[in-house]
Amino acid sequence: xxxxxxxGGGLVQPGGSLRLSCVVSGxxxxxxxMKWYRQAPGKGHDYVATITQSxxxxxxxxxxxGRFIISRDNAENTVYLQMNSLKLEDTAVYYCYVPLMGKWGxxxxxxxxx
Length: 114
Fold this sequence. Notes:
By secondary structure, this protein is mainly β. 0% of the residues lie in helices and 51% in strands. Strands 2, 4, 5, 6, 9, 10 and 11 form a 7-stranded mixed sheet that branches.
């Protein structure tokens, strides 16, 4: 059974940083493109970032490019999202996603507030 467990969310002031983790079990992530999405209150899932299997290539939504960094540790079966210079509008539940499997995690809440 494939399971994705996100962690690392919390309350942070504008300009602060957080590092999210997504630990995957039930599959070997080295074979899969991995993505992060987020969902703000009352909105749908918004794309955040993608990382290819080797980690060599990444992609970001315009809203987070230059502030967020997606990375992965295939040996640990874990994907990360380093979030810097956080803004109020980054407040959302952040989800890890395996597109080829159609699998989502349960999400982790990130709240940016002064």
